[in-house]
Amino acid sequence: MRRSIHYFIVAAAVALVCASDVEAQGRVRQADVERQLASEDRDEVRAGIESIGVSGNARLVGPLAARIEKGLPSELLDAALDTLTVLARPEAGDVLFSLATHRRPTVRRKAIEAIVACRPRGADRVLVAALSDVDPAVRSAAATGLGQIGARTSIDSLFHALDRGILEASTSIGQLAQPGDVDRLLGYLGNLPFDAVTPALSEVLARADVPQQKKLAVVARLAELATPDARTFLEELVASLPEGRQTQSLRDAAQAGAERIVQ
Amino acid sequence: MTTKNTLSLAPLVALAAWLAACGGASSGAFSMTFPDNRADQIEAVAARIARAPAPDDTPVAVGVGGSPSRLFAIDLASGNRIWEQPAEMSGVPFIAGRLIFAQEGNAVVARDLASGSIRFTEPDQALKLVGAAGEGDVAVAVLSTGGGVGARSKLIVARGGSRADGRDLELAMGVPAVRAGMLFIPWNSQNVSVLDAASGEEVARVRIADDVVGHALVVGSDVYVGQNGLYRFTPSIARGSRDGAAWIGVSPGELPGTPAFLRDAYAPPPAPRSATHRVRLDFRPTGTGESVALANDTLYYAFYRAVFALSPEDGSVKWAHEHAADVVGAMAVDGGLVVADARGGLTLLGAANGAVAWEGTLGAEADAVLFRGGSWSPPASGGEPMLLSDQLVAIAQNTDARLVPVQVYAVQKLTTVESEEAAEALITLCDRREAAEPVRGAACSAMAERVSSAEQLIAALGRHARFLEGTREPPVGALARAAARIADRRAVPHLVAHLQDPATPTAALPQVFQALGALGDASAAGPIRDFVRLYHADDADPDAVTALAAAIDAFVALRGPVSRELLDEIAASPFGIPEVRGKARDAIAGLERASTEAQEADAARQTTTAEETAPSELPEETPGGDARPMTVTSEMVAGILAPVSRELGVCLANAEGGPRSARLVLRLGGDGAIETLSVTPPPVQACVEPLVRAQTFPGNARNQRQQVIYTIRR
């Protein structure tokens, strides 16, 4: 009987949180799970895959990876990927890297999401490669994931992706941008749709590690832009900034900038 | 009957003579009793043709086009438009001496060529204007029902621009010609009656028993008749057969649109806007004595905007030309081909290379254009010649959807061009997604058979679909076939990379696997095994079954008996796609069959051939009681390989071409380690090598590197 993957993920996550002695539990079950994975019955294999997710036993990543490499029907492969995502173990890196070039786009997207969750060594390289995937959903997942794993070396690729219309790269750029990258980002204002750039700007303005002067430069550039969208953005920035001396100058600048833009 | 001109006395006299000569089908012209193929009569006609001065016709082009339809005439020598008249024609006009005949409404209208004014009209009696011709003052027009049984025709003769005679006949007539004061009238598919233009008497008749004669035409000073081929009217035509006559046929092969050498004269003539005028063959016959040939040995073929110069013998392409507009008329001249196009352009394409050698204008758009060039040829300049491969590629890449058939034809012709440029062009065309599928398919098929340069191939295979870089995958399937054909293993890593690239179309994967199997590089076995394992149970893509079957074949080709482990795994896989499991079982059965055969053969024929290099001359005794041999001999190799002799035999049986034997050259280190192992023929190596390397060879007492040659047989 098929079960909802989403339901399974939620259940597995809850089980992970609630398990008091996950490793011990996993040790107890390992032989059973391996037997289930080797079964000729689909339901039993599925049960084995799901029990790995529930147990959270990192030692079962290897047997699950081996089972994946031996070939699974599509729905069991999807379930196995969900399990690896829930487990979030870097040991799953090799099989996930392999699945990142699977012929089915759904599998590739799930593999990218699992890589982001597992953060194995070399994840940034695989995600950058996935920015060039032929499937837009895979590209989007990769662009989002690069920001999530903090792959700062991928910033040029993300700008390239933004140039090529992968809008999810915007948020990641905002998350990863160094001060020197902010000026490059501001160059996109007026050249790309405003909505494509604002996710990056929002991230930059929210980050504590970005110098204040760079944030003021962002606000000044938005004020120069003087579009209704820019005014709205600045007004929302003013509303979102917490009260305090540290944010006062930025709030003032945003307020002034918004007021200068004619309705 | 309506005549607008005033008859002079001379035509009346001639008319009386005509009426007498053509008094009835039983005794006069076209009578059933007139003797045919009389050598004396035909020799007299030929002599009369030879004696007559060459026609001195003004070179003109007559066009029809526009809306409302207009008829116009151009003086080719000066380029001037002579006249233009409104005319709603149901067929193309014909130039006939000083007249132009055209069918308009329910009548045939004769116009003055010099002014366009109507000289007379003739009710068409529900017949079609088949053709007209003239020389000097004499002109003749033929109207006919065409067909065979129950056919009717009407022959209209004009002199001095006036109607002189009209005859109704119960037979089918073809396209006439006038030369040396004689009328040449093809009829009933096999006959040509030669009538004296002055008297109307039939002076000779040709009957061709083994061919169709529907056209008579005058080119230069000569008369030609024929339809599927062409007879020059010489005394030898009296033979009544192609054999021994001055005859030429053409064999251009299958041409898109199947244009006729000369259109079927007994079928209804095409309308002015018919595609017949745009899909056509043109030529200029020539000859001396009893010979006949085509000028420049060229048959010109036009398909809308594409023009080809073909060898009449075999259809090989001499040059090709992509024209700016549809060709609606053409005339072969000594210097090449003059084409008239729908936009009103006139262009001379040079006979040598198709370069544009002259350009003129009709001054108006046209649906159909007819030429009477005589000896005229435009003043030709050099023009810019292009490589034939470039000419064909230009046509193949044209975006005009009507050209698809001829684009496929151009691609096919491109495969016959022996040059690096042609091979590169095939790769480019195969890679062109925006091309029509038949064109791309033809290019890919041709490329797989034609490309011989590994460098070209590897450069093309090196590309992958990369969104950020804006690149697309190359035509992997066709490139894989080409790689297998040229048997260059440098392609293997590139093919493996495409095997692992999800952008590679599923449809291309079987060809990738086939190539990897044929190339015999063992390094591909691992990726193929991984592919089979990963996807053998993934039922999401039904098209992958073919690819998986090809992958299994490739794996067996590369690993031979060693592939059994994977095959057993797949065959027994509970979730495996049934077809894939079946394929694995088939492969296992194949291996077992080959093994049995090899075993039987092995028992009968296992022999060894040993050719030691320098070390073989060394003494075999081991000094000092060392247990190691002084040298490893081929007999020792036979013993060492005995446990795998059956598998080695299977390797031979499964290899491409199924060789009976293979030669191993082993370079062994002093400690017995295999340093190098080469196998001839190479396709066997991938299978044999792991089996040989899995065995342990002894070191030699001298602790020196040595070479052993050993032959495995099945």
Instruction: Describe the largest sheet of chain B.
Output: 5 strands, antiparallel
| Cα end-to-end separation of chain A | 59 Å
Compute the number of helices of chain B: 17
Ranges of chain A with pLDDT <50 over ≥5 residues? 1-5, 7-22
Instruction: Determine the number of helices of chain A (DSSP H or I, runs of at least 4 residues).
Output: 16
Order of helices and strands of chain A: HHHHHHHHHHHHHHHH
The total count of strands of chain B amounts to 34
The helix-and-strand class of chain A reads mainly alpha
Which range best describes the helical content of chain A: under 10%, 10-25%, 25-40%, 40-55%, 55-70% or over 70%? over 70%
Strand content of chain A: under 5%
The oligomeric state is heterodimer
Describe the structure.
The complex is a heterodimer of chains A (263) and B (714). By secondary structure, chain A is mainly α. Helix content of chain A is 73%, strand content 0%. Chain A is built from 16 helices and no strands. In chain A, helix 1 (5-18) runs parallel beside helix 5 (74-87), helix 5 packs parallel to helix 7 (105-118) and helix 11 runs parallel beside helix 13. Chain B is α+β, with helices and mostly antiparallel strands. Helices cover 28% and strands 27% of the residues of chain B. In chain B, the strands form nine sheets. Chain B has a five-stranded antiparallel beta sheet, with no helix packed on it. A four-stranded antiparallel beta sheet of chain B has the order 4-3-2-31, with no helix packed on it. The interface between A and B is medium-sized, with 29 and 27 residues.
